[in-house]
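Write out the bound-state structure for 4'-deoxy-4'-aminopyridoxal-5'-phosphate.
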Amino acid sequence: MSLRSQFPFFQQGPIVYLDSAATTQKPQSVIDSITRYYQHENTTVHRSAFSQASALTDKYESIRANVASFIGSTHAQNIIWTKGTTDSINLAAMAWGNQNISSDDLIVVLGSEHHANFVPWQQLAKLKNAHFKVVNVLPNGDIDLSHFESLMLLQPKLVAIQHCSNALGNIYPVKQLVKRAKKSGATTLVDGAQAIAHVPVNVEDIGCDFYAFSGHKMYGPTGIGVLYVNNRIKHQLTPVQFGGEMISHVSIEKTEFRPFPHFLETGTPNIAGIIGLGAALEFIQSKMFFEASKSSASLYQYLINQLHDIGTVRVLGNTNKNIGVVSFVVEDESASDIGALLNEQHIAVRCGHHCAMPLMTALGISGTVRVSLGCYNNKGDIDLFITALNKSLSLLTL
Ligand code: PMP
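---
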């Protein structure tokens, strides 16, 4: 069975799906795991006294352990379930930031950040009367390391760093940046939303305090995400939401909370999402996925070469260190016009600022056409895309 045939999405007619950075398609195994849960395993976790519920609790906690080992965390208890990357970063900003950022502290983010790793910190700084500074990007979207260094000399309290750019595909030197930030005494958060399906992630090797990602960008379901928190700072977090599941004892006078990470997981969790994420982890660690990822670099290069042959296309980003995202602009044409014409030819891409407006401003553009590759794409997809792009460009210049 081919890898692509595992994805029912592709059985519904002609579509060239080049939007995996927005969300990946789901393999049948992930869909089946969720169906099986609702059909046969549907109970809740950590509560009921009967055997199905305790079997489910074991499964649920074993997925936490699998996620931990997948990202190189020694302890399952360093993994907090969230709704996704945005939720994870907001949780970090509230559960940690609220207590640990004070007036005149400095928060630093990269100029390439997705809004999810930009706005929560900007707003926290506003709330606390703290300073918020943004590291300049170079014309190819990479970090201006001398500017980063000058900001580190100001001894920031928090440094939030994107692992890979959703808008350009650049892979950032997170280990090096985290190391430098830690030397200045900063707490560090890495946004791994785009990295998780493309590069090996080892949080202990990176050395970050927080690492955030979403299930839906790694072939898993929407509505489930992860915030990894290391042992160094887990005691600095305080509850954000209150209610069931997160307490150990409640009386009229006071409430005692469960230990980390449970006091940050309030209410009935997204059990179906976690089961689906568990199946996605199995998929991403399968031999089939491993084989497919071996050809992803050459597929990306093939796409870049084809685009270079179209004179009016300007490819942005660092194409030497990239996760398979190609962002481009075309002289005198708007990205959304190109996207609309591609859509008519059943080519799915994303156009616009890609939730990275500060990056677009820094690059002096309003948006790009973004083609992002997943494990199911092949050379045939690229050929269909290039033919459709050429047709779109000739229609636009008529
Ligand atoms: N960060 C990056 C780099 C992203 O690409 C995304 C999703 N586009 C997010 C954060 C937010 O992820 P989610 O919408 O799943 O919360």
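---
Residues 84-86, 114, 116-117, 162, 166, 191, 193-194, 214, 216, 355 surround 4'-deoxy-4'-aminopyridoxal-5'-phosphate (CB under 6 Å).
The longest helix spans residues 51-70.
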